[in-house]
Amino acid sequence: xxxxxxxxxxxxxxxxxxxxxxxxxxxxxxxxxxxxxxxxxxxxxxxxxxxxxxxxxxxxxxxxxxxxxxxxxxxxxxxxxxxxxxxxxxxxxxxxxxxxxxxxxxxxxxxxxxxxxxxxxxxxxxxxxxxxxxxxxxxxxxxxxxxxxxxxxxxxxxxxxxxxxxxxxxxxxxxxxxxxxxxxxxxxxxxxxxxxxxxxxxxxxxxxxxxxxxxxxxxxxxxxxxxxxxxxxxxxxxxxxxxxxxxxxxxxxxxxxxxxxxxxxx
Length: 266
Description:
Structural class: alpha/beta
Order of helices and strands: HEHEHEHEEHEHEHEHHEEHHH
Radius of gyration: 19 Å
Mean pLDDT: 91
Number of helices: 12
Low-confidence stretches: 1-21
Strand order of the largest sheet: 2-1-3-10-4
């Protein structure tokens, strides 16, 4: 017997001819997906889906923009709360679906300093604090702004877990999004930074950097939820359904995400 998701996918396939002529939906996408999402869109289009207009940014900012009437049709958040809050205020059609669980990683430029060991992934932050206190230098430590970026919240929690949040204050530089934090982490004046593992795994970043994952229990789970914005068109619905399928899940897993399909053994 077909599951509801399979019936939805069958229905989507039947719509391909008309969707190919439909207007491109505008999608708000968390910047932790900045390298994974273009591949997702490419595969979606290869199977007959329409073009997609994509905006990347911090989930908290998108939450405010959607509440203020921004013309997005689909929202892929880096957390659950942003989507659930919009749903409670009737800005999304329903509570949406969990599409991935992310991981946090320490990232630094290749060949500059020894990469911290897995059992002490924030040793580089400790070294940076020691260097600053000794008056040797002021190496920057990058993270996304916790005020509106879920990966920034996780970074703050990880630094707090390691007892480094307060001591790292003079060294912290915050990106507007986790993607901007990754740029800051690889800058000349930076020791490194706490960013999404998905960004560290992207070929464009991996070729000039190295990383170590942060233990998942050092911060709250980075459960990522998506939902259709109220009034979304058929093209956005087709993309939303396709993103819940196995092919999309496989792409996300290559970028370090855990997906509901993987947890269920597909």
